[in-house]
Amino acid sequence: MALVNEHFLKLPDSYLFSDIAKKINTFKVTHPKDKVISLGIGDVTRPLPKAVIEAMHKAVDEMAVRDTFRGYGPEQGYSFLIDAVIKNDFVPKGIHFEPGEIFINDGAKSDTGNIGDILRHDNSIGVTDPIYPVYIDSNVMCGRAGTLENGKWSNVTYIPCRSENGFIPEIPENRIDILYLCYPNNPTGTALSKQELKKWVNYALSNDTLILFDAAYEAYIQDSDVPHSIYEIKGAKKCAIEFRSFSKTAGFTGVRCGYTVVPKEVSAATLTGERIPLNRLWNRRQCTKFNGTSYITQRAAEAVYSAEGQMQVKEIIQYYMTNARIMKTGLSETGLEVYGGENAPYLWVKAPDGLSSWKFFERMLYEANVVCTPGVGFGPSGEGYARLTAFGDRDDCMEAMFRLKKWLR
Amino acid sequence: MALVNEHFLKLPDSYLFSDIAKKINTFKVTHPKDKVISLGIGDVTRPLPKAVIEAMHKAVDEMAVRDTFRGYGPEQGYSFLIDAVIKNDFVPKGIHFEPGEIFINDGAKSDTGNIGDILRHDNSIGVTDPIYPVYIDSNVMCGRAGTLENGKWSNVTYIPCRSENGFIPEIPENRIDILYLCYPNNPTGTALSKQELKKWVNYALSNDTLILFDAAYEAYIQDSDVPHSIYEIKGAKKCAIEFRSFSKTAGFTGVRCGYTVVPKEVSAATLTGERIPLNRLWNRRQCTKFNGTSYITQRAAEAVYSAEGQMQVKEIIQYYMTNARIMKTGLSETGLEVYGGENAPYLWVKAPDGLSSWKFFERMLYEANVVCTPGVGFGPSGEGYARLTAFGDRDDCMEAMFRLKKWLR
After folding, report:
1. Which residues of A are less than 8 Å from B2 in CB distance?
2. Domain count, chain A
3. With a threshold of 0.95, does the pTM exceed it?
4. Theoretical Cys-Cys bridge with B343: which of A53, A96, A306, B191, CB 3.0 to 4.6 Å?
């Protein structure tokens, strides 16, 4: 008799975004004349850069001709892209990797979820809270998160990030085997300085903790003392795997490409204490359960690193970050406490008068016709907050700020 | 202390294709003048159909414009492709699915590997032998395959397919929880008639076995009594998940697209005997650890179903199947026992004089300058056989047959 993986049954059905959609629909039905502005989505809206479009057309044409057609590529990705990644994302920062340490993928979500395959089912987990739900859900699915006890998983350490501590996670007393860090952070939009990140690398080195570092938003960093890669910190190659994505950097959310860095130095232990390089295991995992990313997509990603590509990508990011500035100023003027938005496309707003995330969401929708994402959807410490994103249109951002000011005046 | 998943350490390093590459290189170095023809690769060589190329150019252009740009798509795939799949691959055979039963992916390899996520770690496994190594390796990685004992995994039932039984797997005495079937078969190139496949569906229904049916080569079927989908067999929706791929159908090995069918009826049990629909679990798995396939790729796949696309795809398949016929005739004329090649692009050749797979490979390379794949690389029952593929150029196929005839005369 085939048996299911019962860990899946522990997962509460995730209703956050469908609940939001339902509430918006209800509003639209009952208020057909009112135009709703959504600042809730975490998806980009600007079209792909010209250089990327040209590269894809060229690659498509190659696939039409016998001599330039490409079938199966390397599971780890084509060297033309891996070399571009190393040369552009790391060498300028004095960080050196061999090609074998970079794994091209179809987006960071796949690898942040799949990386658990190479790790033991009973490692303890640590996450900053609030956080991207995939980190926890993917661990629930393999039993690693333990059991749900009043809103928290028994084998997960939640490291609160709230206004009280300036959203800077404090080193926990207990040991953690696997720690997820996402900086610049989704959802709070806050960043960690080199000094702060160094504390975590040192914690990992002295506790033999594996850091899974999600740097999907590094392209939005403006401050010079905010590290773009965890490998800017000495010793990180021994304790960290880094996830990068072209989704928010170059508008690839619908194109699907990213990469994972698994340094040759990073290792984990067997029960007998033997050290095993994780690079070898991840390579074997990818060769067995993944068949590489589309050749056309990899050429698109390569074009992001061209001179034109870099210019065009920076323009798009500046567009979103200008939105973020407009929103931050506007929200401050309403008297709301607002965080983030300086090194990330997300703003994290504290609900006034101790309102819950959902109450704040509903008031904003019904009284200002603006959509946010209730912070509690990202974890217990998100209660009482809401996330606004800067990925929308300029005019919508400005109109939304106008409405919020009027609403809260 | 972070611990590794020690099941990975049980995996013997897979050397098959790198060993083959090394041996070919050695030959080329020592025989610089001799031109080697490779009939070993399992990858397509014809360029993409015109309809697919046009669809991709159009989709790329959409991504360049604000109003037609697409960001995140549904994790399950776009409805335009799901509808085309249902309408073209199933309705004509009288098989009906809801959109929610089809999951678009980035290729069959990912899902045949990842499907294990939703199944318990100690289900027993059954495979026909020889077989596509991913089925077994992905189960070794999560501990489901057990331990390796003289070339076989302790929790895996190997169902031998050899000339002695006409490559028709016999129903095993023991119960199997999860059974992998790949028909038309890689590597043997043989197919199962409706009658034969029905036996397995009935076995699954009476033993509560889950069948994982890999139909990646269905487009190569020529005989009318060979089912293209396991759902052509009554009752299969209750016990089978089917994997389809555009890789061999439309030359997508470098484009990456396929789909998985998880009927609403198919379920597995909890330890207490409760039935859980696998569709729900797989949907949750995909929403958590996958972010959909490239929009451009999905438009490419949609174009495969257009009138022009269908015509162009059939032409390519006929090209490969003509290669297969030429090879089958040629090999028979050499006096070798040859199987498959009638409903699949693979030919399975028995080594003469009881030669081992590797000896046969080396003789063919050194004495005829033709490359095959040693059958033993696909499992114990592959020993004494070699796989030849019909994916090469027409001229190479004919030249290779000429050489083999001369060699074995």
Report:
1. 119, 123, 177-178, 208-210, 268-269
2. 2
3. yes
4. B191
